[in-house]
Predict the 3D structure of the following.
Amino acid sequence: MRDSNNGLFSTGIKVSLLSILLFFVAGFISSAEIKFDVSSSLVKKWFNNFTTEALVYAIGSENPYYTQVLPKESKPPAASSIMLQLMTNLRPGDPRSLIGTELPGFAIYDSEIYIAGKGTTYSTLPIEPTLPLQEILKPNEPNKKNVNIDNPNEDIPPPKLKTKGQVVYIYHSHSYESFRPILQGGKFTSSNPKTNIIAVGDRLKQDLESRGIGVDHDTTNVGEKLNARKWTTNRAYALSRETVQHAVSQDRDLSYLIDIHRDSQPRKMTTISINNQPYARLCFIVGREHPSFEKNLQIAEELNSLVNKKYPHLSRGVIIKNKSQGNGIYNQDLSNNAMLIEMGGIDNDFRELYRTADAFADVFSSFYWQAEKVNGNAD
């Protein structure tokens, strides 16, 4: 017992000395007139690299009470491991932290799988490729033999609005995302709203309105607007942010912001059979780079659970991303009820996508009216 206590005491001293050293280094950097910027986000990133167990041991060096909550088999982190993480951002035991810095594109696998759906692993995470602007400006001819694209909502009941106005805002930061079965020649981008992700958003709009929920659907041709400003596709979220901010400023009733995308993963990862019918699977993406991201995480977690309860395995889960894996915010700081949904992938067709839009509308409407009932706003 004495040896164990001595070991913990020794580690505690090392961690304390390291903390003091960091304090003086931070003080020197902030007071010295040198061109070196240490932002709060960088400090946050440093500490995000540490396990909860390591941080508990650090706190326990000052108050041993906290280490009592750890499992008996846990061990204090080695001082060398702490120094390695601080100096290099490499995490011992996690090869992704090394490979992700060396291989272009591998950083996407550093996303956090908050809730894993069926088949969701770090090798099946949603992919958001950067596309050249000249490619997404092409309309690309539709494959009319595959599915009727002229009347996508003919089988949906007419609107029966119960909300006082429009409360849901559907938009598409990447409106040019399309699907191979929809287009000729296996293309998967299109500027035609009848053949890209906008058509899926329109289906969801009609679905929700038939269930009494007012919806404003933005159908902006993002490619054209980016081109007009001489922006690349890397600025797509900056552009959609302006659109969302304008919409919210014009209509204060808009409280649910839904950015609908499609994944670039192949069919086997984005399709599932429910009652012998193929559905395009969903995935919820939450950006952590803003103070209230946990509010967005909460609604994503709840909807993910409700979707999979009624439509088994339709959702692939909830993924958290920071700036190193994407935009990191995704306009979700504009509302506590903001979400980004990957709906299907490049190999899904409209029949599968519309089934999924119908299913999500079914679940979301129940969720919405229950929330209104709890808040005392429902009739």
